[in-house]
User: Fold this.
Amino acid sequence: MPPPAVVRILIAPDSFKGSLTASQAAAAIARGIHRAWPVGLILAAYLALCAASLDHENGTSDEGFFLYTGYRTLTEWNFAHSEDHPPLMRMLNALPLLLPPGVRMPDPARAPEPGGPAPEEEDSIIRRRLEPLNRAACEMLYHTGNNPDRLILLGRLSSVVCGALALAGTWTLGRMIAGARVGWLAAALLAASPVFLTYARLIKEEVGLTATLTWLLVALLRWRRRPTPARAGLAGVVFGAALLMKLSAAALLPVVAWTLLSRRRASRVRSVGALALATWLTLVAGYGGTGLALPHDVDQGLLAAAFPDASARAAAGTVLRWTPLPAGFLTAGLYQFCKLDPDSPEAGRDHFGRATIVAYGLGVVAKSPEGFLVLLGLSLAGWSRRTWIRFRLPVAAGAAFAGAVLLAARTAQYDLYGGVRYLLPVWPLMCLAAASFLCAHHRRTARWIAGLAVTAHLTAGVIAARHPLPYANLLFGGTAGAHRWLTGTDVDWGQELKLLARYVRSTGTSDLILSYIGSASPETYGLRYQGMEMADLARLRHVPRLGGDAPRREILAVSAAALMQVQPGRPPVPWTVPHEPEAVLGGVLFVYDITRNKDLHLRLAQYYLLAGRPEEFKRESRRIRVIAPADAASHEPLA
Assistant:
């Protein structure tokens, strides 16, 4: 039997423009192939993991809003639609929507009000300025004849591309700092991180910010090796792109300044000018030559307080919009984080202490696989002085960014912290730290432990690929128990309605009671339900439906966000019952069979009574009488 065929690649160049001989050119090409093929394999694995859940889930709470505002900004060239964040990532997400057959757009003025009373919001900016856009986004996705799954899928493609750029930047940064092996190991660890997989396929700004900040560090390292104005200008372009992704990129301004000012004076003067000019031109180009679109609370709050005269306020706004440095972004971001709407009675209230460093630390630990935590611990314990010096720029950048984000979160106007997504740009640096340990230590025991940790990390990433958002390691109860430790923004964004619809069809369920916190429309996926704790946007155009008195099979589906009781001002949700769910869908939807469950129907009746919903209360009362006609003790509370 002949031996199996072996694929061989023959490299036989003649020469290279007279600068290299044939053998030198062939050796350089071979080195490039050997250096790049692991990265290509990692990118292919990353794309496969993203494809596992790219179209598996419905749109999450914010994706419709970002897609709608990005599409209007892109088609109308009106940046007022993106006043809460810079527009670049939203426009990139909306770019594929320009492909045929196009998108049917609703009129924001005709968007209906949510189907029921809304809770009192602490921040009236959201209610007055952004809620109409939220309603119009839901209209565009679910009520104007568009295919919502197609629009969400097209919008997510740009995030996947940005995730690939972040992986390439991590590989490049590791290769420049510590060699090619550290680069591709760090990229492999990042590609299998559940947190990275979550936001690399959602319509959000975090993955774009991560990609641009990673490449900014690469550009700064290239400038330090050869400080030329051209390389400084390239760093300025990347920095401007990062600022156009999200205001949080301004946290790297001290790192940029330290990098430029630490060189000799002759080169830094020209380089600072080149970087500032390139950053300003990028910002101007990103806003279409119209200047920075100031958030409403900055325009009407900060400037109105500082300049009572209308003409002076207009002049100050013009200066802030056209400032050659990102001071406008810094001012807008800090004022948004530290101040509420000036018309709100909550304006000026101190909100320190609501989201602490401990909360973010626990979030990072809970959302990291056990193997990755072992690698981080080993790398911190095993770093040598030389490694610290080689990693000083990424460590300083990560510390500055994390500190700025944590400070912003502590001054935010919400009771819950923002979630680990704000720390996503630090993830490549943590992966570089873990990869450095793998390549720096040669003891057999350490290598065995690190190898097992890497295997565990990669396995966890593959397992979590279909449902990466609610992932938590076993120390925090696993995916099904994440809601007991983490907040809604780390677990549940209303992403599993399609899975619930398949479950209802497969189990022959006739009646559904749904408690859902999200912006997608359950009716779009064929769900007819009796509502409980529902997000306002999910109730757009909802026709109330009551279940029958004697259904064949009745289930109660409760989202993890409702279990956390994250909706203030509503009646208490009766989920503190000693019942195990019959199924947990995607880690965020808890399903209970209540066909013959008298206790849960009694609690549902009490909930509807407190919520002021008499029809649902009467229906639950009838259900209890059907289930337990002779149990007088159950009828007494209803009477």
